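Action item from last meeting closed. Structure (443 res):
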């Protein structure tokens, strides 16, 4: 509980509001001051005397908000709000030109009526919100007219730091951040360079990302990750988002040395699971009287039915059931590499089929020689089985030389920003706290 709170407070220290201020934190003492300044600035924004929404000054109206109920039509809502039928018909006809509101009127969607501040409270405008971002205004006041518009979208840059205790998803959850961030880190950014099934206790990370808000207040989730730093086994992994093709809008993540973080192969054929047995040519097994029985695959234990992903693009060369392998799939990726996935409960691809990296090719099972549900992942290089974790695997698409200079320039300030985010001291090992900590005796 204490730990969580401390971390959340830490979060607030590090919130950077792009539109308001970009701050680099150079030392811990400055953070209190900065936080105070930020709070003051936010307070100014959040307490306007005049409230504007949908382009109206709401203070001038009686504002009635509701959502469309089951079986409720546009006409019915207007009728309930003191608009008579000839006018309703006219309104419906007029609005067809811009947005056929009667047709797209949907249960559960919010609407707002702005009514005159007089004894009649007659409606002067009707606002319908088909999506969170979009709204339709029907103005009744003078001439009837309708138009559609969008709420202003704001991206707020934030940063977090975290120390992995059990899993990345739990750590991010403890920080109070959306699981979308976990997926972005595990599937999008580091899926090729870090095996999230093998995180070590004490692995830690910093992330600079943007949250998306509509109209300043409605949170719609993590938009994207600008940069990240992941310390795995004491080894740093930087990731910077960079657009390599502005025409096609191609974005990739690269290291501080401009190396593409994507590799031709994923680190693991299953998203979350654990390695139960590694590639080991000198493995001795009790069952075989401790004789050497080499294990030329990597076993990933996971519940039966867990999707198995192709670790790279390629063509399926085998999809069958045979002996100890059980049900398995083999894929040829190019002249050099092949991968094979054993003990499936069900195969999902046919021989000759082209698969893309990440495609589900089957499901974890226990067919063939196996003591428990797992996928035995076999990696072939030039016809020989090797340990993929010891191979230097090819980069997906290296950055071009001309772009590299631009990239290195681009990431300079971002890396500086990232390097100046500090890990919070772990509250459980408060060694150098200025104020003495009185430890409560445990009862
Ligand atoms: Zn195996």
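Sequence:
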């Amino acid at each position: 509980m204490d730990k969580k709170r401390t971390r959340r407070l830490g979060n607030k220290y590090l919130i950077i509001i792009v539109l308001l201020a970009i701050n680099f934190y150079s030392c811990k003492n400055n953070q209190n001051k900065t936080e105070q300044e930020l709070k003051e600035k936010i307070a100014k924004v959040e307490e306007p005397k005049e409230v504007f929404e949908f382009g109206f000054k709401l203070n001038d109206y009686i504002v009635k908000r509701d959502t469309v109920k089951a079986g409720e039509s546009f006409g019915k809502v207007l009728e309930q709000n003191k608009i008579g039928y000839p006018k309703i018909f006219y309104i419906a006809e007029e609005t067809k030109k811009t947005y056929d509101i009667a047709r797209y009127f949907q249960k559960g969607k919010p609407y707002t009526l702005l009514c005159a501040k007089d004894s009649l409270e007659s409606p002067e405008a009707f606002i319908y919100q088909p999506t969170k971002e979009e709204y339709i205004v029907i103005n009744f006041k003078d001439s009837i007219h309708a138009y559609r518009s969008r709420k202003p979208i704001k991206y707020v840059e934030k940063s977090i730091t975290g120390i992995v205790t059990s899993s990345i998803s739990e750590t991010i959850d403890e920080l109070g951040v959306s699981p979308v961030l976990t997926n972005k880190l595990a599937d999008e950014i580091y899926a090729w360079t870090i095996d999230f099934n093998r995180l070590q206790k004490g692995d830690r990370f910093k992330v600079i990302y943007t949250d998306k808000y509509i109209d300043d207040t409605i949170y719609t989730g993590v938009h994207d990750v600008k940069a990240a730093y992941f310390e795995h086994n004491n080894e740093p992994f930087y990731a910077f988002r960079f657009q390599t093709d502005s025409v096609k809008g191609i974005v990739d993540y690269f290291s501080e040395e401009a190396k593409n973080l994507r590799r031709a192969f994923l680190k693991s054929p299953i998203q979350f699971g654990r390695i139960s047995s590694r590639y080991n040519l000198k493995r001795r097994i009790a069952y075989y009287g401790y004789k050497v029985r080499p294990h030329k695959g990597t076993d990933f234990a996971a519940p039966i039915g867990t999707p198995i992903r192709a670790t790279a693009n390629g063509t399926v060369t085998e999809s069958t059931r045979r002996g100890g392998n059980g049900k398995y799939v083999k894929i040829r990726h190019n002249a050099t590499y092949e991968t094979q996935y054993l003990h499936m409960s069900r195969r999902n691809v046919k021989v000759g089929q082209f698969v893309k990296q990440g495609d589900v090719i089957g499901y974890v099972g226990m067919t063939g020689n196996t003591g428990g549900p797992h996928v035995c992942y076999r990696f072939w290089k030039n016809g020989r089985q090797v340990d993929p974790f010891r191979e230097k695997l090819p980069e997906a698409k290296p950055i071009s030389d001309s772009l590299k200079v631009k990239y290195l320039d681009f990431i300079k300030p971002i890396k500086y920003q990232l390097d100046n985010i500090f890990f919070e001291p772990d509250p459980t090992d408060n060694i150098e706290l200025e104020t003495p900590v009185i430890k409560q005796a445990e009862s």
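Note appended to the action item: The chain has a mean pLDDT of 83.
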